[in-house]
From TrEMBL:
Organism encoding this protein: Streptomyces xiangluensis
PROSITE patterns xref list: PAC
Domain PAC per the UniProt entry, residue ranges: 253-305
Xref: Pfam families: HATPase_c_2 (PF13581), PAS_3 (PF08447), SpoIIE (PF07228)
Name of the featured protein: SpoIIE family protein phosphatase
Length: 828
């Protein structure tokens, strides 16, 4: 699509009256450039100035080559974000081609932004684009493209600066590959240069380059892999993006990387390369230079260092991340021996990062104040530092300056203190020290001043992030069980991993609910969304399911009640849930799923299966939903696993494959160490989502209880029938101790239920571990009240007191709309 009608204007003012401060600073910056006009270094420096003085996010220069405008140099964020191509046809309708042909600047707003005739960027967001012609030089001029995300686009002063800088750009002479019958590539190499054949991987290097790598000429085999193998692993991906033809386009490239020389020394190198095309336009040969980057570069290149620091701080979330970014950006370029970054809290500096981290590398006073991993130094012991913080400006003390011991030992060869301003106050300080005398040049001072402002703002933002993250973590922990209960005949463990993406609070939860008669409910669920609302709803659903389960409802009724509750809460969120009721005596389980993942079962022989279970819809979607139950038989040694989708699903892995991978991991695990199994399963967790995992190993009960039940009919002889049933049960079980006490308790509890309630009454008797349990259930939810005092004239109220006196323990529990009054009698 052809770009819309553009506004054409002359942005370069002939007089000085309309020039503003930023334009004047741009003029002064141009005067400080030492590189010759028409050199690649000069062009690269001016492009960096475009980003500094125009507020642009990316800038690119194109020059005519044959019938196309070809990219010579770019700076800023990746060009692909704004669909800036490597070249454009001279006769096409791109902004670059039109500006070049017309010889006039063109300005495009968000509704007009198009960088090619057939492409319009809409997926990333609105932006504005400027296209300015370059002065006609010996190589045919060219075009400058600049892009900004500023809502107002390029304002008047931005346009003045862009026009000024475009006038200062002269495209260098295009590089031409040497003819085949010319001298060898090594003969043509400049000092510290190289030539890499992209098809064979053979590289020609001079002796100076080999000396940088610490390799002798006789030891070098001519393969680029030999040099790449010396690269520090963390820097290898960025270096590969330069030396692999598929990863780069024709044009200039520049980066810094680290190598480890054969002596073990680590060294910073700087690569500048130009990829030359073959006759068919494909990359043919990479030529360039490799220089020592251990020393701080001078001139306008400090702008690039500040830009890289700003980019690192933009993605730093925590105070520790900010501190590490500052240390990485400053210590190596400044050749500093130590650097510390600390937050200012009241009258103390709380250090967040020390580099090096060893205590002996820091002043004795600091070590005496260490209360944890990092020092907590009082400012009163460092009046010079306190004065620098009050003034709010970077302070530099050369070697030999008399300072208090707490500072002198940080930098005996020179010390720099950077107050970190933010929001009208000091957020902290950065201390940089050298052991040997260090000369502070103007470039270093400019770099330190610019870095201080960026670090201060980032530190304040990260401090707020850490505080909010701690609040989020506290909220999350309070909504989940603090510990899991001890189960008869089974062991359960759980794991929860919060997302590492921002401050989102997840809605994943788990629970293990002990139930009467040696049952246990395993629950896992996930509320839609990642915010405080989802976490709050998660806490409500966990509480509701626990309450319904303790009331004695079967699994399908528990989930159905939770569904109706969520429907009545008038929320737009829904929840998924898996509820498994396990009978630890019989070794059976009943599973109900509400839109959730099925359980994964590991059998005692090591085989695994993803349990095929019927499922209902998620909670909160359909009012009259059905939630069918599926039976799962268990044998001693079986392992049941419930999880949320964060463990088995990601952008690279679909749900089915994730469940199969989880089943395979369980098959290879040792269920005897359940905690280790859980930790191993979390290895592949998707950290962009919350993960909840619940495991239970069923071992079987070593001693199963004896049970009998009796339905009490409402007849005049009801209590007598209950006593006779109890006597027969005692004889059958061989119980001869405490029989009178047991019969009296049965009489009191049955009488109390018949007198004070209506409907059915049930008597349950249980014997296990020399304890006899009597339980009487009725349909009334009212709990019997123990009288505080009974007079001589009272005709009732003594039953509960008798039960309490004869029992080792007693209480009531809700069951299916009613209650159960129980007591246990110890058989001595």
């Amino acid at each position: 699509m052809r770009p819309g009608r553009a506004v054409i204007a002359d942005v370069v003012s002939d007089g000085g009256a309309g020039r503003r401060t930023r334009t004047l600073r741009a003029e002064l910056a141009l005067k400080t450039l030492h590189a010759e006009p028409g050199s690649p270094e000069r062009l690269r420096s001016v492009i960096e100035l475009v980003l500094v003085f125009s507020g642009g996010v990316v800038a690119a220069v194109y020059a005519p080559r044959d019938d196309r405008l070809t990219l010579l140099e770019s700076a800023g964020v990746p060009r692909s974000l704004y669909e800036l191509r490597d070249s454009y046809p001279l006769t096409g309708g791109s902004p670059a081609a039109e500006s070049y042909r017309l010889g006039q600047p063109l300005w495009f707003g968000p509704e007009e932004s198009a960088v090619s005739p057939d492409t319009r960027r809409t997926s990333v967001g609105d932006f504005s684009l400027a296209a300015l012609p370059l002065p006609t030089g010996p190589h045919g001029g060219g075009c400058l493209i600049a892009v900004t995300d500023s809502p107002g686009g390029f304002d008047t002063e931005d346009r003045h600066c862009l026009g000024l800088l475009a006038e200062a750009m002269v495209c260098p002479e295009p590089a031409r590959p040497a003819p085949e019958d010319a001298l060898t590539a090594e003969d043509l190499l400049l000092p510290s240069s190289f030539s890499l054949a992209m098809d064979t991987g053979r590289v020609e290097v001079d002796d100076e380059t080999l000396e940088l790598f610490g390799i002798g000429r006789e030891d070098f085999d001519g393969k680029v892999e030999t040099l790449l193998g010396m690269t520090v692993p963390e820097d290898l991906p960025s270096l590969m993006s330069v030396v692999e033809a598929d990863h780069m386009s024709v044009g200039e490239r520049e980066l810094e990387f680290r190598i480890r020389r054969p002596t073990g020394e680590q060294k910073w190198l700087r690569l500048r390369g130009h990829l030359l095309p073959a006759a068919d336009g494909q990359p043919d040969r990479l030529v360039g230079t490799v220089t020592d980057a251990s020393k701080l570069r001078s001139g306008v290149n400090e702008v690039a260092r500040v830009q890289r620091l700003a980019a690192a701080l933009a993605s730093a979330g925590t105070v520790r991340d900010v501190s590490q970014a500052v240390v990485t950006a400053l210590r190596q370029p400044l050749l500093a021996d130590r650097i510390a970054l600390a937050e200012l809290e009241g009258d103390r500096l709380v250090v967040t990062v020390l580099d090096p981290p060893e205590p002996e590398a820091w002043p004795e006073l600091w070590r005496s104040e260490w209360r944890s991993e990092w020092p907590d130094a009082p400012i009163r012991t460092m009046p010079t530092l306190a004065a620098a913080l009050r003034e709010g400006r970077a302070a530099i003390w050369p070697a030999g300056t008399p300072l208090e011991p707490a500072l002198a030992d940080v930098g005996p060869g020179g010390l720099a203190v950077l107050p970190l301003p933010a929001g009208g106050r000091m957020a902290g300080a950065c201390l940089i020290g050298w052991d040997t005398p260090h000369d502070f040049g103007p470039d270093e001072r400019a770099l330190l001043t610019a870095s201080a402002g960026l670090a201060g703002q980032a530190l304040m933002r990260a401090h707020a992030f850490d505080a909010e993250h701690e609040l989020v973590g506290t909220l999350q922990r309070t909504l989940l069980p603090r510990r899991l209960p001890t189960l008869p005949g089974a062991v359960a463990v759980a794991r929860y991993l919060p997302t590492t993406a921002g401050l989102e609070v997840g809605g994943d939860w788990y629970d293990v609910i002990p139930l009467p008669d040696n049952h246990v409910a395993l629950v896992i669920g996930d509320v839609q969304g990642h915010n405080a609302g989802a976490a709050t709803l998660m806490g409500q659903m966990r509480t509701a399911l626990r309450a319904y389960a303790v009331e004695g409802h079967p699994p399908d009724v528990v989930v159905s009640h939770a569904n109706r509750l969520l429907m009545d809460m008038e929320t737009d969120l829904f929840a998924t849930c898996a509820y498994v009721d396990v009978d630890l005596e019989e070794g059976t389980a009943w599973c109900v799923r509400a839109g959730h993942l099925p359980p994964v079962l590991r059998h005692p022989d090591g085989t695994t299966e993803i349990v095929t279970t019927e499922g209902g819809p998620p909670l909160g979607v359909v009012t009259q939903a059905e939630f069918p139950m599926t039976e799962i038989p268990l044998r001693p040694g079986a392992l049941v696993a419930l999880t949320t989708d964060g463990l088995v699903e990601s952008a690279e892995l679909d749900l089915e494959d994730g469940l199969r991978r989880m089943a395979d991991q369980m098959a290879a695990s040792d269920p005897a160490h359940l905690g280790l199994v859980a930790d191993a399963l979390l290895t592949y967790a998707n950290r962009s989502d919350d993960v909840a995992l619940l495991l239970m190993r069923y071992d079987g009960m070593a001693l199963r209880p004896e049970r009998e039940s009796w339905t009490v009919w409402r007849v005049p002889q009801a209590v007598g029938h209950a006593r006779r049933f109890t006597k027969r049960t005692l004889r059958a079980w061989g119980v001869t101790q405490q029989t009178d006490a047991i019969l009296l308790v049965v009489s009191e509890l049955v009488t109390n239920a018949l007198v004070h309630t209506d409907g059915q009454v049930r008597l349950d008797l249980t014997l296990i571990n020399n304890r006899f349990r009597v339980a009487v259930a009725d349909i009334s939810p009212r709990t019997p009240i123990k009288p505080t005092s009974i007079g001589w004239e009272a005709t009732g109220g003594r039953g509960i007191l008798l039960v309490e006196a004869l029992s080792a323990a007693w209480g009531t529990v809700p069951v299916s709309g009613g209650k159960q009054v129980w007591c246990e009698i110890a058989l001595s």
